[in-house]
Amino acid sequence: MKTRRLARMRNQTLLFVALTIFTFVNLVPLIWAALTSVKNPADAFTIPPTIFF
Amino acid sequence: MTVVLLWPLGYAAYLSTFDYYLGSREMRFVGLANYAQLLSETRLWQSLWTTIVIALGSVGVEFALGFVLAFALYRLTFSVRVFMILLFLPHIITPVVATLFLKWILTSNWGLVDATLMTFNIGPPDWLGDPVWAKICVILADAWIFTPFVMLVLYAALQALDQAQIEAASIDGADSWRLIRHIILPSLVPVIVFTVSVRLMDVFRFFDAVYVLTGGGPGTATETITMYTYQLGFQLLQVGKSSALGIITLIIVAAIIATFSHILQRSYGRSG
């Protein structure tokens, strides 16, 4: 009974982590657009890209 | 209402029988010559092939990802609503704006993807300038926008499944893969056929993402049938030919609807 509960908890955690990673990657274009909207034009075109400034 | 709906269609069918350039006052009746000319053009078949490749690619990705996400959310016991809202965000944005976001990060040299890869000394491909990569980008752009729709429909269908049957199979020792293969997928066939057919019809009328992302290029690598119609009508101003292509597209989409509604009826008959 306890083993089954542990396995269930492990599965739920793995599912949550996988979904969190996918959701983050999926939202990168939106996050990037939001971050770019508050940058100076010069900061928007740098290599390596800057997150804020 | 019928007149309002059918008037543009009738007018397009009427215009398709004329040799008519926008701006010129002359309209020469040519019968079905526009259709014959279009059907003999390599560019039409090429754009049709591109449309089919993009349609199958994007609907395939949307269905696979949509199903995996819907099933993951179905199995998850907490935070489902939060994930649902966050995953649905790309679909809420206007497709043109969503595609502009993607174009922004895929732009050569200073786009987020290129800049990040170049930071690690990896030479990125020309995402929107290479014919193969441009097609892949268009497919992924469409998938990014419309996977949430497929996910939502499949998630709703999963909620409506007979839980007793699933629990009985689980008690009998069926693992997730067997549950999906032998119980869940067969029960979802009508919804799957409906979703895939709606998306296929949509992708055949696909214009905005291609227009914003690649403009049909490089060359004609991502020129879909609607993009070609636009080129004919608004770039080359050949209104008669453009109308004929619109009617051809309508016939193709109608054929898809007929095929899928037939399949849908058969699958409903089987599951009902």
3D architecture notes:
The complex is a heterodimer of chains A (53) and B (272). By secondary structure, chain A is mostly helical. Chain A has one domain (2-44). Chain A has 2 helices and no strands. Chain A has helices spanning 2-36, 41-44. The longest helix of chain A is centred in the middle third of the chain and has 35 residues, at 2-36. Chain A is rod-shaped and about 60 Å long. With 272 residues, chain B is mainly α. Chain B has a single domain (2-271), classed as MetI-like (MetI-like fold), CATH 1.10.3720. Helices cover 75% and strands 1% of the residues of chain B. Chain B has 12 helices and 2 strands. Chain B has a two-stranded antiparallel sheet. In chain B, α3 (42-75) crosses α7, α8 (163-171) runs antiparallel to α9 (176-204) and α11 (225-235) runs antiparallel to α12 (239-271). The longest helix of chain B has 34 residues, at 42-75. Chain B starts with a helix and ends with a helix. In chain B, 29% of the residues are buried. The mean pLDDT of chain B is 90. Chains A and B meet through α1 of A and α3, α4, α5 and α6 of B.
The most extensive contact between chains is: A-B, 21 and 27 residues
Counting DSSP H or I runs of 4 or more residues, the number of helices of chain B is 12
Work out the helicity level of chain A.
over 70%
Largest sheet of chain B: 2 strands, antiparallel
The number of strands of chain A is: 0
- Tell me the domain tally of chain A: 1
* Fourth-tier CATH superfamily name of chain B: MetI-like
Which stretches of chain B of 5+ consecutive residues score pLDDT under 50? none
Give the helix/strand class of chain A.
mainly alpha
Tell me the quaternary state: heterodimer
Structural class by helix and strand composition of chain B: mainly alpha
How large is the share of residues in beta strands of chain A? Answer: under 5%
- What's the helical proportion of residues of chain B? over 70%
- Mind describing the biggest β-sheet of chain A? none
Average pLDDT of chain B: 90
Total count of domains of chain B: 1
Shape of chain A: rod-shaped
Alpha-carbon distance between the two ends of chain A: 53 Å
Distance between the termini of chain B: 35 Å
Low-confidence stretches of chain A: none
Radius of gyration of chain A: 19 Å
